[in-house]
Sequence to fold (104 residues):
Amino acid sequence: MELREWVEMELKAVLVEAELQEGLLDGEIGHRVHATIERLRVINHRDLPEAITNYDDAMTDVLQGGFADVHDAYDLLQKECPVLVRIVRELLDIRNFIGELGGT
Fold:
């Protein structure tokens, strides 16, 4: 739950910063910022909701039981968790890229 909230807040914050930078930059860097904004929108509208839904579904399945042993339940959660971690890492990379632009 806390990871989800952090990702949603980080996504909104970095999107606002990127949109502010987009108006100030042109050329290759401006194109990169525009592409970054588009990627953030895809994360916001497709990737993150899908990852959250899949993880929530896995958690529900685990909580409802029906697994032969704890390893099967663990495997299900381990399958969905890396998607959220990948989104977090991508947001941190984007935050660094946008942050560097703000400092220049």
Summary: The radius of gyration is 17 Å. The chain has three helices and no strands. Residues 9 and 51 are 16 Å apart (CA to CA). The chain has a mean pLDDT of 88.
